[in-house]
Amino acid sequence: MTTDTTTPAQSPEPCDPHGAQRTVPAAGASSQRPAQCPTGMAAGPGGGTPQPAAPTPATGVTPYHARIDLSAPADDRPADKPLLDDRDLPGPLSMHLLTTLGTLSPLDDGSAYQTDQASTLYGRAMIIAHLAPRRTIACTFTAAWIWLGGPFPGTIDVISRSHYRSVVHGRAIRVFNRKSIPEHLIKIGRVCVTTPARTACDLALLPQHELEGADAGQLIDRLMAEYHVTPEACLKILDLNRYWPRAPFARNLFEKLEV
User: Could you tell me which residues belong to the region Disordered (predicted)?
Assistant: First the structure.
């Protein structure tokens, strides 16, 4: 799969398997109709870079996701092939050398992604777009990596109604079959991902051993700090999904953060 950030985004793909459309084209892309953006985010001229929406009349506060820049930097667009394997290099020792130098970050023994590309939100989304199955939603640890960066997660976490048994570049595809309304999703380039608030909720719903063993608590704290996610926003999501497994535990976690 390759990506051309200059191709007009005239027919945006659904952001979720149920038809929600929330496409934000890369900087420099043109469109005959405005991009369909999440609540609180307005498309720029020609459907390009999102511009902060006007403050909400009721509170006078701009929603947190209106401040997220989802565009690819115009002067530093991601490479068309963010993932490389031995066939893309002169020989197997090249992969080892570039990994040692930090130019590449390994996924398994025979593949890696470009480290520089993983330094931006859009670049990380492009990497996941080449790993996650089509028409799935990046969630949980995968979504947290897109929003925050850091070490690459051990699994490819997606929301889907399908099951995937294959291993992708050394990572198993872990499927969550959870309700996902359009307000909880956003599309960055070609990948659909849960919003920071929804991602924080999904992390809080993980089993206790995984919540503690994978530093999920730290990821929740960082998501809330870096994207101005409030405990109230997370509690509202949980209120709409009271029957999710471990929802009471997640509620208790965010209620403590309210104090």
Answer: 1-62
